[in-house]
Amino acid sequence: MFNVDKIRQDFPILQRQVNGKPLIYLDNAATSQTPQQVIDVIVDYYSHYNSNIHRGVHTLSQEATDKYEAARNTIQKHFNAKHAYEIILTAGTTHGINLIASGFSSLLKKDDEILVSALEHHSNIVPWQMLCEKTGATLKVIPMNMDGELVMSVYDKLLSKNTKLVFVNHISNALGTINPIEEIISKAHEVGAAVLVDGAQACPHLKPDMQALDVDFYVASAHKMCGPTGVGMLYGKEAWLKKLPPYQGGGEMIAEVSFEKTTYADLPHKFEAGTPNICGGIAFGAAVDYMNAIGFEAIAKYEHELLDYATAELLKIEGLKIFGTAKEKTSVISFNLEGIHPYDVGTLLDKMGIAVRTGHHCAQPIMNFFNIPGTVRASFAFYNTKAEVDTLVSGVKKAKMMLS
Amino acid sequence: MQIEDIQNDIIDEFSMFDDWEERYQYMIDLGKTLPLIDAQYKTDDNLIKGCQSKVWVHADLVDKHIVFTADSDAIITKGIIAILIRAFSNQKPQAILDANTDFIDEIGLKDHLSPTRANGLVSMIKQLKMYAIAYQTQLN
Question: Pfam families in the record, alphabetically (chain B) (predicted)?
Answer without folding.
Answer: SufE (PF02657)
